[in-house]
């Protein structure tokens, strides 16, 4: 299934839970490296449960049959990330979604984020957070 199809399924599927992580969680450099290594070692296409790219980490309920062949594997949830922000070697987590399959099997947004952050010895509750700037004053003529 293409990423756009997965996204549309997530958006219109009952039982889907999406949360904006506010303020965004900032994964420090050392932890970010550990998380990325562990996600790569646990790639769903090679016997693991995670599929990661520069904008999203996705957790599946079972490994894929082969690279590019998900078979009966179902998406449990996704974590939207931005690499290199706020500094070059940090990762920002700003949104997470748990699919119906994830909800049915007991996953929550916090549990999903904690699973990934655990590879860097962090959890969502203790992860450093972005500083929220005061919004600008409204423009008047």
Automatic annotation (TrEMBL):
Protein's UniProt name: Unannotated protein
Source organism per UniProt: freshwater metagenome
């Amino acid at each position: 299934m293409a990423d756009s199809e997965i996204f549309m399924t997530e958006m219109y599927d009952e039982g889907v839970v999406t949360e904006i992580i506010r303020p965004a969680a900032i994964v420090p450099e050392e932890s970010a490296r550990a998380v990325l290594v562990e996600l790569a070692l646990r790639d769903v296409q090679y016997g693991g449960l995670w599929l990661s790219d520069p904008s999203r980490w996705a957790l599946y309920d079972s490994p894929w049959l082969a690279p590019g062949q998900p078979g009966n594997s179902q998406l449990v949830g996704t974590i939207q990330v931005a690499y290199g922000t706020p500094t070059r070697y940090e990762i920002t987590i700003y949104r997470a979604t748990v699919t119906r399959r994830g909800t049915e099997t007991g996953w929550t947004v916090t549990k999903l984020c904690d699973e990934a952050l655990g590879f860097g010895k962090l959890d969502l509750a203790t992860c450093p957070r972005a500083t929220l700037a005061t919004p600008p004053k409204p423009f008047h003529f």
